[in-house]
Amino acid sequence: MADETFDTVTMFGADWCRDCRRSKALLDGLGVAYDYVDVEAVEDGAARAQAISGRQAIPVVVLPNGKHFVEPSDAELRAELVSSGIVTA
């Protein structure tokens, strides 16, 4: 699973997670198209997120360029979305 690749921004999270709700709101506010994997509803969701990040923390946000973030700040995630050309500044 650690070799999994993504064609679009993908976020692993859960409804109860405050940081997940914050990152999701940022992506929505910026108009970013993304896939959302609920780690509680998708059978292998938590295992996939952990294989990517090496940690059990969420959210895990994966970009098509292969970079991933665990519990990113809004500034950190926004900067990488701009840097990678997914959104404009």
Number of helical stretches of at least 4 residues: 3
- Strand proportion: 15-25%
Give the class from helix and strand content and strand pairing.
alpha+beta
What quaternary form is this? single chain
**Order of strands in the sheet with most strands:** 2-1-3-4
Mean pLDDT: 93
Q: Portion of residues in helices?
A: 25-40%
Radius of gyration: 12 Å
End-to-end distance, in Å? Answer: 33 Å
The helix/strand order is EHEHEEH
Describe the biggest sheet? 4 strands, mixed
Name a few traits of the molecule.
alpha+beta; 3 helices; 18% strand; 89 residues
Structure write-up:
The protein is an alpha+beta fold and 89 residues long. It is built from three helices and four strands, in the order E-H-E-H-E-E-H. It has helices at residues 18-30, 45-53, 74-83, and strands spanning 9-13, 34-38, 60-62, 68-70. A four-stranded mixed beta sheet has the order 2-1-3-4, sandwiched between helices. The mean pLDDT is 93.
